[in-house]
Amino acid sequence: MHVDGNFGGSIDGTGGADLAILAEQIASAERVGFDGIWSTEVSRDPFLPLLLAADRSESLQLGTAVAVAFARSPMTMATVANDLNTFSRGRFVLGLGSQIQPHITRRFSMPWSAPADRMREYIAALQAIWQSWQTGEKLDFRGEHYQHTLMTPMFSPQPCPFGRPRVMVAAVGPKMTAVAAESSDGLLVHGFTTARYLREVTMPAVEAGLAVSGRSRGEFTTSYPGLVVTGADERGFTEALERVRHQIAFYGATPAYRAVLDLHGWSELHTELHRLSKTGDWATMTGLVDDEVLGTFAVLGEPKDIGAEVIRRFDGLVDRFTLYTPYPLDEATRVTIVGGIKTG
Predict the structure, then answer these.
(1) Strand (E) positions, the chain?
(2) Average pLDDT over residues 110-123
(3) Which of 147, 195, 233, 248 pairs with 322 at a CA distance of 20 to 30 A?
(4) Residue 93, CA distances (Å) to 85, 214, 228, 234 in order
(5) Is 328 exposed, middle or buried (0-12, 13-18, 19+ CB in 10 A)?
(6) Are 133 and 60 within one domain?
């Protein structure tokens, strides 16, 4: 199982605006032993930090987890992904997410429609554009949502010697998961996912989608950002507990993620979290995440024990495990965790 880290944002407790901080994150990722790093699109652009990473590291896989697909046209997305794949010598992975309707229509002022169908067409458009650049064949993509029929020599990049970028799709529900398995190179599992949901809902949808595309499981990558609660000392562990409870409460209030709670018989928890989220009562919401819910969504323990538990829960389900710690965690503790997963 490969182990990855997050990069360039606040998800690991650091800021992403300072180039010196970004450079240190890259160096730290290599010292810790991460195989790759993922850049998020939350409060900053997901692509620009990866350009620095491509320059500073020659070994790390670099990916977006995620870039918001529907905030950009396939042409603009294809261009930046092709550039990063070229600059990184084939190490770039384009991780795409649909986001939810209010963000697409009200934050980005872009059109919204059935997200699974639109994502399937979006990926097909990307592939057509990259194929045109690689082979020189005429670009003639005509879909329901996107039409790309103009590509002149001035605007066509040279063929990338490393091929097209790999594409992974973020999904929670079975429809988007099927799109990922039918149309892309991999699945970016949402952090608000349990091992049971992976076994009973996600992986059956993946297998069905792969059958449609005529591929085997070995040709498809599943990446999962797993919540972890740990710390170098008791104070750090207590802070981690509170931060992860808050993160679970935030996700649990989102209607799009309700199915995960439903599977575990916690539908009423979603209803109450959603109600409280409308009033901004985050403290009460956090308190509703009891120890059973916490232990189901997150791996808890001392740093030396985390690796074995990650392997127990997720070996055979995921190919890449991203250490999801929405709180500060020192490098030595990360080294212990990553080493435990790799040797587990």
Answers:
(1) 2-7, 36-39, 61-64, 67-68, 92-97, 141-142, 147-148, 166-171, 186-189, 221-229, 298-300, 320-324
(2) 97
(3) 233
(4) 8, 22, 24, 37
(5) middle
(6) yes
Token pair listed for 69 = 């697909």
Question: Which DSSP string corresponds to 73-124?
Answer: -HHHHHHHHHHHHHHTTS-EEEEEE---HHIIIIIS------HHHHHHHHHH
Rg over alpha carbons for the chain, rounded to the nearest Å, is 20
Shared domain for 223 and 235, answered yes or no, is: no
Separation of alpha carbons 81 and 84, rounded Å: 5
Domain that holds residue 243: 231-300
Same domain, yes or no: 75 and 118: yes
The domain that holds 315 is classified in CATH as 3.20.20.30
- Residues 112 and 183 grouped into a single domain: yes
Same domain, 203 and 311: yes
> Token pair for residue 253?
């209030």
Which residue, chain included where needed, has tokens 């229509």? 105
User: Do both 53 and 199 map to the same domain?
Assistant: yes
Please give the mean pLDDT across all residues of the chain.
94
Instruction: Give the number of domains in the chain.
Output: 2
Express each pLDDT in 183-239 by its tens digit. Answer: 999 999 999 999 999 999 999 999 999 999 999 999 999 999 999 999 999 999 999
Joined together, the tokens standing for residue 60 give: 């790390």
Backbone phi and psi for residue 265, each to the nearest 5 degrees, phi listed first = 80, 25
Of 143, 113, 118, 107, which Cα lies nearest the Cα of 128?
143
Q: Whole-angstrom Cα distance, residue 268 to residue 275?
A: 11
pTM to 2 decimal places: 0.93
Do 173 and 262 share a domain, yes or no?
no
Task: Report the candidate in 74, 72, 23 with the shortest Cα–Cα distance to residue 45.
Answer: 72
